[in-house]
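Intended use. Records like the one below are meant for learning the mapping from a protein sequence to its folded structure. Do not use them to infer anything beyond what is encoded.
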Amino acid sequence: MSQLSTQAAVEPTRTGQAPYTDEEISHRIERCPKLASLQSINRQLAGLVNSDQSFNSQIAEIIRRDPSLTARLLRMVNSVYFGLSAKVNNIEEAVLYLGLRQIRELSMATPVIEDMERISGSLPELPWRELWQHSIGTAFMTREILATTMLLIDDDTDYIMGLLHNVGKVVLATAFPAEFEQIVRMKFETTQEVAAMERELVGWDHARAGSYFLQRHQLGEEISVAVAHHIEVPDDSSHVLYAAAVHVADMQVREAGFPGGLEKVNPLPEGAWAETPAWQLLFEDDPQAADPARAGLEHTLTRLPAMLQGMV
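Structure written out for the chain above:
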């Protein structure tokens, strides 16, 4: 696992003044520790998972070298999500039950979450575990949503953009801790109100801050654009379907009981995600597919809480 310092240089907070300039904000974000995991997300394990010649024993051997990934894998396979009658303590057996796709997702999520945990050390009293659960849930549902559309994805872009959609909250907490603490003490009706308060106190919201942070990591444009627009989805931007999927997934995971925003936002009414312009945008070219997709996703959402409790 990568080693990150949990100490980011933070300048004194100005009180009673206008928000910071773009130059000041970008400067602080650039001084935040990088997520080394984004440069090398368990490449050896990813190579085996993608290979048709891999054996469960080979995959298990690599997993054994990572105690955190091992613990997360066994916790997940023994969760009520899988409903096994006997406890699994063997990694090879866990790999067999989970399957290659979920092993790959775990291998991506584990180092990223651990890196974000190190960065978020500046405000340890906040409920970060809720944010990690929300992030992994959004990654999972973003992938499920896009699988129901006509968009073809042959890599892990969908999962990664969902996983990182709220990385800007970690960035703001690190670069602007005093302002972030004010925000988490407030109550809001919607996530749009949260973003508006972030812009009022800092100048940028967490979507813009996260997008800029990920651009600095040289991630693909579709990821940084989806993160930038996951709160308010435009109808005329490039990669708009990615942003729409993350927006809907974020709402679904909140409805499933994992708000994960750190700040206090009113709960969503059931099925609100299916009434959004973002949902309509996803099926603009194939409206007939919307109802079956909704039914399948609603079923998946009933199993999501058990999976997240097992992973984080």
